[in-house]
Queue: 3 jobs
Job 1
Amino acid sequence: HDILGKIAKHNERENDIRGHVSPFWLAYSVREACEFICATEKALDSIKPDAIMVLHTNNYWGRMLAYLGYRRNIPVVAYQEGRLRARDEKTLKKQGSAADDCTKIMCWSESARQAYLEAGIPESKLVVTGIPHLEEWFGYMQNPQQFELGKKIHKASLGFDPDQPLVSFFPPLLSRYEGNPKKALGALADWSANTFTQMAIRLHPFEHEGNVEALKFGLESHPHARVIEQDTLPLIASSAAVISQHSTVAVETLALGVPLIEIDLDSVGVLESLVAQEVAIPMGEGELDKIAQVLRGELKADPAKLAEWLDLNVGPRDTQIVNRVVAEIERLI
């Protein structure tokens, strides 16, 4: 609490964080961290793995596992953590520190590799493989007839009419939404009701449970809109259009061939907007009718610019992504 008190002196008095973190939880968190370190060291010394694979090192658990393995000269493989943003590197050195305890980072694309290089990561630690969690979907897309049938089946499993278009809204964490999230949710729900258009709302996986339950209650009697808590990728693939802001969802949407609408009803600007790169449709105050235009195919991103963006930012879109990852790991061990 003394340390937290020193931090709090740099904030306004009403933002003193000591009121939100009890001494017990501070002690418990340190104990839990120490237990994890001891248990991990014992496991590594006992199992003696040929390699360690972590999702990324941008949280304590992934970073510590990588660190403990790397200092034992065990090869450590990590993956790109979602969409890379220049803001995150500037404020948190997120890209520059990503390989401190890693032997290899599997990058999605050439633009991601360049971002890591610019952050000071040695070229020898970087390899472009594509987006591993999308490989299965790229395979589905190679059979358009079966892909379309799968979309209908999934929509029906969520309680939607499989033969009618589905629009999905994927906001970031509501605390990080650019603008007023309640205004956006209300406007989209009203638009859905007024136009008789099916709408799925998928909140961020880390969204506070209270917010999820409150929204579910608010939409309980809505004729066309509902909160969806199932997996994100099948919902994106089943959508005729996706509405979002700055998130990995935006990249996944474009990768799966779904039109992306970037919402900014408050005209505050969207962090590292994809509209500026001409691959997303902008939608501001009074422009909800653009959704219908997108559904009718009257409003779309320039195909040539979209194809160029996908090559640069999504990387290989084939069914060999996992094979490339495995080949890299085999070379290490």
Job 2
Amino acid sequence: KSFANMANAISSAFNATRSSMQETYTSIPPYTAQTASAASTVTKSFYDQETEMFERLNRMGQKTTQEVVDFYREMTKSAKLSASERLDAEEKLFDAIKRQLQEAKEAQLDYYDDLKNKIEANADAEIDRLESQRDSIEASYDSQREALEDQKEAIEDAADAQLDALDRVEKAKDRARERDEYYRDREDILQDIDSASRRSGIDARRDEAEARERLEELDREYQEKLEDYEIEDQREAIEEAQLAAIEEQMDALEEWRDSSIEDIEASIDAVEAQKEAQLAAIDEQIAALNEAFSEEQINMLAYQAMTNEELYNQYYNQFIEPMSQ
């Protein structure tokens, strides 16, 4: 009886197990890509699950370098990572810090390039302004000198006209003197005729008359010379006084032009020298930056910052953030 009961119990258990297995089998969905993905997710580690979507967004440009650094810094702190996963996280953290240092360096180099361009542009603008000022001075000088030349020519023309007038006056005086001399000679002849008709024998009176005539002739010739001197003096006054004033103005104008141009040339040289000095100083800073952040130095700094978060924060505050702004 006991064996029969045991057989019945085994048979019942077997039937129940078979029925349960059939229900379980019929409840399993058919195999699809969706079920495969779900099964794969179940088998992925915490690290793989966390990094898959992050790296996808990172490849799409949705993550900044700082976010990459922060993400993998947290990954290296997680206790859920295996040894190989921790090494992978550290490598990615190292690459992100290295990239961050390189980006900061490039940003600083771009800043120096922009600064150099601004210095050159400002210097060029100032030189253009000075050269324009120089051109204005030259134009003003030419204009004023041309005006003085015209004024000088006008004075010379006026002097020539006055000289022509004086020449006409002199000719008129010459003619008047010739006329007077003719009448005097004629009168002398008439007097000689009259005297001859009434001649007496007194020699003294004749000598006195001849002396008076010679004196008058001498005075007359001297007076004519004085008139000639007066004309010559007027000519000299016209040719020298006014024209000398014009020459003085021309000399002063040329002196002003030369002095102004010299000052501008000196200013241009000073701007050039200042520009070269500023560019040389920036080049020195660029050389120092390249030396301080060479490939070897960046690798060393990135490794140190990767292994020591506090040191990374110091680097970030001292180098990365200031150079990136």
Job 3
Amino acid sequence: VRVAYQGVRQEVSSRWDKVASGEEFERLEYDPQERHLAYGSYTVAEPATGIDRLAATLSLHRQIEGQARLKVDADPATDLSRTEDTVSTVGGSLVGESHVAARHALTYGVDAYADSVASETILPTARAWGRYPDGSAAFDISAFAQDEVALSAAVGLSLGANATYYSIASDLSLEDPTFGLLEKDGIAVTGTVALAVEVVEGVKFHGAVGTGFRAPTIDDLAGVQVTNQGIQAPSPDVDPERSLNLEVGVKLHRPRFGGSIAAFNTFLTDQMVSHEVSEVYGENLPAFARNIQAAHPDLDVNVLDNLDKMVMRGLEADVYVSPAPSLTVYGVGTL
């Protein structure tokens, strides 16, 4: 049995990159910023025939953030904006491990997380929308399994699968009655196959193919926040991202030196990217976008939109050298 708590609190953290120029904000502060994580886990060996290990975990994560904004040349008495947001996440997981016929190492389980948001604007006018619509909620649950197969002393095969259900609810009618209650949900199934072959001692070739999935979050769909590109507005029309990932490479391990190099190719479908709001909605801007533009006339207002297709490819490499037992030098690079 293990029980733990981690907490951190930071007061008056300023976005100096936005304040120092003197062109956008006179004040842009986060106060407070709090992170609290409490969790408990219970692990038991051989709870039943065929199960070598079973671990259960419960957690509570709470994030509290206040933000104060005052634009340049604004009146602090009437124009100071302050929001307060609290995001609470309750999570749980159950993970099992089994070894079958000496060649299979199985890991399997289920995990679930539920988010709830309390958000409000305190100044200049109180309302039930701070960074997010108050009462926003999200839930996801996943079932997964992985099999590490030793085909021989030099060849290993890894098979993995994951099925996820997600749902998000956020009341955008608090700002724009046109959208009403935003509700999104979906199911995704992903998988991975990887093969590793040690051709000689210390030299291993590997390759993998897998699919990926990223559902939009409350931040993506309903959040309002200052970014380096301007103001990120709610994006209720954005869809999930999906990907196909390919990788091949080689690893070298010697007592005094070693490293690896791998080539990857990722095919993305519906990648979420930020665009200026008029590029997505044209002249028919939603009310929430018009309100944000009116409040920040000197900043770009952006929303997320989906690209049809995108391809990313490159090389990753790392190397280490140990000229002495007490000294190791590392290097990494990406192209």
